[in-house]
Amino acid sequence: MSIFSSAGSIHAYYPEVVNTMPIKTHKVRIYPNAQMRQVLDAGFGYARYCYNQGLELWNVMYESFVLTGNLKFKPNGNKIRDILVNEKEDWQFSFSARILQTAILNLKKAWQNFFNPNMIHSKRPTFKSKRHKRQSFTTDRAKVVNSKYLKLDKPLGQNYDLIKMAEPLRFTGDIKTATITKRGERYFASIAVQVADQPVPQFVESFDIQAVDMNIGHFNANAMSLTTITTRILHLHSKIKHYNRQLARKRKVNPRNYWSHQYAKTKCRLNKAYLDIVNLQQDMLQKFTHSLLADCQTICVEDLNVNAMKMNKKLAKNLHRGLFGRARRIIEYHANWNHQLFIKADRFYPSTQHCSLCGFIKTREATGGKQTLSGDSINQKHQLYHCFNCGANLDRDKNAVDNLIAYAAGLTAE
């Protein structure tokens, strides 16, 4: 990604916003003791059981509704929840009732996303597996005690210990939900807090415009130093490659009984390396977004057809590592939090083919052809944009970002 900024005297109108109560989530690592680890692990299994039971019942009712057309068989969240609550077994009363409620609520949202025409990539809900790398459950009655301990709601007759948090909550307000997750051997709590919001000013004048150009080849972040994080991520990728080769060699040597103590040890190291990469990437994106939106009121991001680009086997790995979709989502919700204008450029806007000086647009029919990852047919350089009209030699990323800034300026001026 490449980031450049430009200042201009642009008059933009922001409609007056009434005070709302947005919900912000703080994900914090937690350190449960031995007793609470058993409780949390059992909670993961119970949430998975409730979700799968609800999904099985939903599928039966949905197929009956499709065949008969009788609205009595049309499934919804309330019907599924009431049936599961009425058919509870004795052992289920040793778990919090809120786990079942929130599991069915998540199932309801999954079906709504599947039928939502705007979410074309949402798939039909499937059964959850205990072998999945991420186990979780949600409750809406958790509390934070003394700013450093998490207290979960417990069933009648049981006693739960407090869970130590790595840091206090960053937000002040009413706690709506707490989602406990486990990745590898680490436990996390995502606490959703309803916070107070401030209204935005009606008019904003003379503000800066920031633009982000997605680049598959590298992550270029101006105004902040991410060299250390990037180096650590590359080192972890090399370790993952090494661990995968070790595991593959053990399976090849003894294909029928390859699970040994050393195999489990290497597998644990591999999972830890994957988790470290996820945490470093998330930290890098959050820092990058914070610095990007610190001194601007408008942010413009190009919209790429990433799914189609993934069909190219030479680009697929870099696209996955580029985190284009996640970076755009983080930028968008951070901009909404701060009442900044978020502009998503049209997918067919030729920011890379457009000359920011004279306005010439490269096409397939033009001399030298279009600008590709390896340059054009005349100048085989990735970072060079050569204009066939005015003869200017520009930095590829800088030229694309200047075009996005001009695109955003034209929209805001309207």
UniProtKB/TrEMBL annotation:
Ranges for domain Probable transposase IS891/IS1136/IS1341: 211-311
Keywords assigned by UniProt, alphabetized: DNA recombination, DNA-binding, Metal-binding, Transposition, Zinc
UniProt domain Cas12f1-like TNB: residue ranges: 324-403
Domain of life: Bacteria
GO molecular function, one term: metal ion binding
Biological process according to GO: DNA recombination; transposition
Boundaries of every Transposase putative helix-turn-helix domain copy: 23-63
Family, per entry: In the C-terminal section; belongs to the transposase 35 family.
Identification of the protein by name: Transposase, IS605 family protein
